[in-house]
Design a protein that fits this description.
four-stranded antiparallel β-sheet
């Protein structure tokens, strides 16, 4: 049985240390990128690009860029870090919230 992709046009983009599937109009929360809401971005680290039946795989990158727009800057959910040592009266409770940037892919 042959696998059918529901997306005819997409790209795999490396942003920071993570890889994301870029589809036109898709919104993704990524690691913090400096910039105001509404600013445009270009990502040159395109690992793969698919356009209907044509698939380009980079070695390591494909020529071209993926354009995106910053939707908003936000902070992720709070994560609690709790460490303790039994029978030693040692307890440490810390919290952390990661800064995120929400982007929308405009063109591939």
């Amino acid at each position: 049985m042959e696998r059918q992709d529901s997306f005819e046009k997409y790209a795999i983009v490396q942003i920071g240390t993570h890889q994301y599937q870029a589809i036109e109009g898709k919104t993704v929360a990524v690691e913090k990128i400096d910039g105001e809401a509404g600013a445009s971005l270009e990502f040159k680290e395109v690992l793969l690009r698919k356009n209907k039946d044509v698939v380009e795989v980079g070695t390591p990158f494909v020529k071209g860029v993926v354009k995106a727009t910053i939707v908003k800057q936000m902070r992720g959910p709070k994560i609690i870090i709790f460490r303790f040592k039994r029978r030693k009266k040692s307890r440490v409770k810390k919290g952390h919230r990661q800064s995120l940037t929400v982007i929308r892919f405009e063109s591939i």
